[in-house]
Amino acid sequence: MILPLSIALGLISMLAYGFANAYSQPLSKSLGAAQTLFLRGLTIVAILTIAALPSLMQPHSWVVMLATVALGVAGYLPVLAFTHGIKISRLGIVAPIAGTSPLITVLLAYIFLHTSIHTLQWVAIVVIIVANVAVSVDFKNWRQSNLLQRSSGIPYALIATVGWGLFYFFLVSVTTTLGPWLSALLVEIGVTVAAGVHLWLSRRPIPLRDALRTPVILNAALICTGTVAFTLGVRYFNVGIVAALSNSTALISALLGSFMFHERLTRLEKGAAAAMIVGVAIIALA
């Protein structure tokens, strides 16, 4: 029963994050990236506060709670690195590198948390991550870029990769202590605070009225779903499987673009989608 639930929660998280990413692009263009993160963060915190009320009534270590908020603040840094990377370079270079971050989470969970992963499941996890990365690869961009220069975006992509890998690993640790609902709430508080401080330091406007816009609320609800599914999955079920699936957002974004916006899938994207299905099947049957 544990394995099917791990797969189900990982897929729910992947779908929720994938839809959120699809809807984040127009919001970021109209409001700005930092503004979008801050405004949707306000809604996320409001939703999760209600959901986490039973957990808030229970005694918890204030040190752990503050550390979880700090984790959320630190989790904002990979987003900044990734955003800056694609700003100065090309998405086809930065995204594939950042897409390998789940492997760091899985390896750390296996080493330090003694997560049980069979050989075939390792193979399937690698297949899923490789499929996710393959969707983002643009070989033309790689050939035209100078990889040794900072303008290639690779240093920022590496920061995002390591940052996200560590962020989700430590999120596993605090979730086992605080539970999925409270840990999700505190992390999102940290992210929202970081986005607010970023806006304040950069003296950018904060259009609070836009927090009540339907697209912002929908985006926040999707992020809530993805985060809660992830924290539930890593709290009670298999960390490696949930982490690998929930972060496969590049692939799900490509599929969403095909179904929602009638974008044609390339052969590479079709092959990656098939590889991911095979990976999930291997996990289920291993």
Explain how this protein is built.
With 286 residues, the chain is mostly helical. It has one domain. 81% of the residues lie in helices and 0% in strands. The chain is built from 14 helices and no strands. It has helices at residues 2-31, 33-51, 53-56, 62-88, 91-98, 101-112, 119-136, 139-144, 154-178, 180-201, 214-236, 239-246, 249-260, 267-285. Helix 4 packs antiparallel against helix 9 (154-178). The protein is globular, with a radius of gyration of 18 Å. The two termini are 13 Å apart. The model has no long low-confidence stretch (mean pLDDT 78).
Provide key terms for this protein.
286 residues, mainly alpha, 14 helices
Short précis:
This protein is mostly helical and 286 residues long. Helix content is 81%, strand content 0%.
Roughly what fraction of the amino acids lie in strands? under 5%
- In which range does the helix fraction lie? over 70%
The structural class is: mainly alpha
**What integer value in Å does the Rg equal?**
18 Å
> How many domains is the backbone divided into?
1
SSE succession: HHHHHHHHHHHHHH
Number of helices: 14
Q: Judging from the principal axes of the Cα atoms, what is the shape?
A: globular
Overall pLDDT, averaged?
78
Number of strands: 0
